[in-house]
Amino acid sequence: MLKILNASPGFGGPLSEQETKDFLTTGKLNIHLGTVDEKGHANIHPAWYYYDQEKNNIYVETGKQSKKTTNLKENEIIYFCIDDPNPPYKGVRGKATVKIYDDVDFNVSIAEKIHIRYLETLEDPISKELMDAIRKGQSVVLEISPNYYSTWDYSKQ
Question: 17: domain CATH number?
Answer without folding.
Answer: 2.30.110.10
